[in-house]
Structure formats: C-alpha cells, structure tokens
Amino acid sequence: MEKNKKFLNRELSWLAFNHRVLQEAQDTTVPLLERIQFMAIFSSNLDEYFKIRVATLKRLIQLKQGTRQQLTQDPSAELDQVLAEITRQQEELGETFRNQIVPALRAEHIFIIDEKTIRPEQQEFAQEYFTQKVQPLLAPVILTPDINFFFL
Predict the structure, then answer these.
(1) Could you give the CA distance from residue 1 to residue 6 in angstroms, rounded to a whole number?
(2) What is the phi/psi pair of residue 131, to 5°?
(3) Is the pTM of this model over 0.85?
(4) How many structural domains compose the chain?
C-alpha cells in the first residue's frame, strides 16, 4: 500500500470537520442565532486555515524539486484539491445564508439592508450614529513603506 493511501489527507480531513460546523448552521432544529454563530465559526475557522494551512502548502510548493519528492503528496495537487473543496463549501455557505438564514431572519422581523434598500430615515439614523459614536474613535494613519509597524 502506498504511503499516501494509509491515512486520510490531513487538509481535506480538516475541511470535512469545518463542513460539519456548516452543517450545524443548516440544521433548522438549531435556534436561529446559534445557526448564525455556527456560520461565524465556520468562517473564522476558514480564515485561520488560510493563514496557516494554505500558506504552508504554498511554501511547500516553493521547495526544491528533490525535497518535494520526499513528501507523501504533491503540494500543488493537494492545494488544487483544497481550493476546490473550499470553493464548494463557500458556495454552500452563501446558499445557506441566502436561502435559509435571511428568510428565517425576515420571519423574526430582522432585515438586512444595504445602500440600495435603505430608507431615508434609516440613512439619517446611520449617519448620525456614525458621526456621534464611531467617528470619534477613528484615527487616521498614513501608511508608507518606510514606517515599521508592530504586528497588530
């Protein structure tokens, strides 16, 4: 038996775990706000996955050919598999949000509005809230290549 056939692929296995989190968001027996939290956890997990796991795969691709041959799987092929699965899951997340979560929120009289659907009085409220509560907390920062910022 080949080396890479003895074990489940670590990256795809992790994505399968995160898909299980998404499935909790799709479960209509779970309370609505918890479903939204599961979507947030799914997204947060995926952010970290990109920072660590996808970045590692990209670094492995940059290894010298001889070093790469010692790996159990071609990192380029693995990255392609990972990105295909992530794309599939992201489409599922969007579909879940549009077709399940938004209608469930509407049923609870919670509406997501954007610049196309906002009414003038809502826009006025948002502008006033921003001016009074948010803007005083903002501080402009000019970013130039010669400034060495600490990690935020």
Answers:
(1) 7
(2) -60, -40
(3) no
(4) 1
